[in-house]
Amino acid sequence: MDVTINECHIKKQHKSRFTLRSQIIEILSYFFQSTMFRKRSLMSDICDNKRRKLNYGENGMNNVRLKKSKKMPLDSLPTDTVGALSYISSLFPTEKFNNRLPPIVMRHQIYAFVRCRTDVDKQLNELRKKGEIRLFKLGEKDDQIGVVYTKDYKNYVDRCCRNSLKVDNFLRNVVEICPDISYSSSALKQEYGINEDDIIELIQQGVLTCRDVGCYWLSIPRVGEFMKTFLYGRRAILQYVRRTKYKEILQTELEQRKLPRKALLGILYHIYDIIGSDAVTCVETSTGVVLRLQPELTR
């Protein structure tokens, strides 16, 4: 009988301990759930506040000041030489160069918009003969041709060399009359009255550069500054593509990247550079245009 009473007592103690343990677990569980709920609600409030800041107001105006972008919708991009030239020229950040350079467009950048390169070269040649643009040999490669509107070029040279009468005479008597990309020494002397001393000063001012013996390229003063940042930016953007797993990247994703501070020309300017120069291949996909690095540039 005593054994039975002790067994019942032990069972009651065990049951009470089990009940107490379950109550403690319930209390801890409730406390944990309430704490997690507060954290979630707090994160939700923070996210909602961020969304409200980015939401458009009742009149469709954004409450946040957005930077002006020169990026155009895909269906609005130019498909002709004149339109492409105008668009790329508008991308040139003259203010970042403190107006030390005119808007410069590389000829191959236009190839990114117009598939037939022969048509581009033909139309540019027509614009050159009409006196609307000037072509310049830039860099060491033969295909590195720069394009500048004649009006922009003349205004720029006037600012740079305003104290040089010989440069002013060269602009009025040679540049306005002859749209060639280069001039022979004999033609300058015999047809335009430019003597040897004049040629030396024109070279010093950066308006002419030596091509061969007795032949000179028409040039842009301080163009070396442009070529330096141009090549630097090209290397930087190609490095972005090279670092991807499959050596390819969506164009829209690349447009969101930021170039180093020394790359003054901007991401869009360089995207059309690497497309037009065939450094990358454009591949149409369901998610957009993919820029795929050429195999010889993957290393």
Quick tags:
three-stranded antiparallel β-sheet; about 300 residues; single chain; elongated; 11 helices; about 15% strand; 9 strands; alpha+beta
Notes on the protein architecture:
With about 300 residues, the chain is α+β, with helices and mostly antiparallel strands. About 50% of the residues lie in helices and about 15% in strands. The chain contains 11 helices and 9 strands. A hairpin with a 7-residue loop joins strand 2 (about 135) and strand 3. Helix 9 (about 225-240) crosses helix 11 (about 265-275). The longest helix has about 55 residues, at about 1-55. It starts with a helix and ends in a 6-residue tail after the last strand.
Total strands: the figure is: 9
Head-to-tail CA distance between termini = 92 Å
Q: Kindly name the structural category.
A: alpha+beta
Give the ordered list of helices and strands. Answer: HHEHHEEHHEHHEEHEHHEE
Major sheet: order of its strands? Answer: 1-3-2
Give the overall pLDDT as a whole number. 82
**Low-pLDDT regions:** 44-69
Question: Which secondary structure elements does this structure contain, and how are they paired or packed?
Answer:
Layout: H1 2-54, H2 81-91, E1 105-106, H3 107-110, H4 117-129, E2 133-137, E3 145-149, H5 150-160, H6 165-175, E4 182-184, H7 185-192, H8 196-204, E5 208-212, E6 215-218, H9 223-242, E7 248-250, H10 251-255, H11 267-276, E8 280-285, E9 288-293
Antiparallel strand pairs: 1-3, 2-3, 4-6, 5-6, 7-9, 8-9
Helix pairs in contact: 9-11
